[in-house]
Amino acid sequence: GSPFQVRAFTKPCWRPAGSIACAEGEGVLHLPSGVCVQGDCLFVYDPRRGCIQVFNELGGESPGAFLRSLGSVLPADGSAQGLAGLVLSRSNVFVADSTRNCISVFCREDGRPLQVLGSAGSKEGELRCPMGLAVYGECLYVADSSNHRVQVFAAQADGTFAPSQILGLEGSGAGQLCSPCAVAVDGDRVFVADAGNRRVQVFRRSDGSHLF
Fold first, then answer.
1. Which residue among 62, 67, 144, 175 is buried most deeply as judged by most CB within 10 Å?
2. What pTM, to 2 d.p., does this model score?
């Protein structure tokens, strides 16, 4: 069987609950590099396979069973080794590719490519080594690591996403960032893992102001 597996643990004592992997064919994992759970489904992106694969969660019916692949949404030649983030919304799958400096957007149901956000650069809407992602409402939050900021892309009326807000700027002072690697949103607060400054900073979501 495949030596590459996704292990699951059961709360509250975090006992091993099982493994998800297939020996061959559909569902085989070559280099699982990120996971995201929503509803009863586990989404796993695998740059070696060049796709995102979807499995039944271990607690559901047919636990760990392969459900579908979201097409060849990633380069299958091994060039997508810089995949750094995966997040889901109600209708989309977002994948951060830190080597190609972009965010790929796919239809959650059938894996159709919908849009590529960003290109290499430091202007608004451009990215350099995007890392962690978060979704809140109709907005996508991106830890734009080598630009030392968080960029926000908002959904438009036609279903595409466009840059709408920037949080932080390079530096070590309050509200300044150095190589942010992860972002999370809770209500009106945006939490940023400010890796280069060895701290977590919090911004107000509504206006981008620094809280603490």
1. 144
2. 0.81
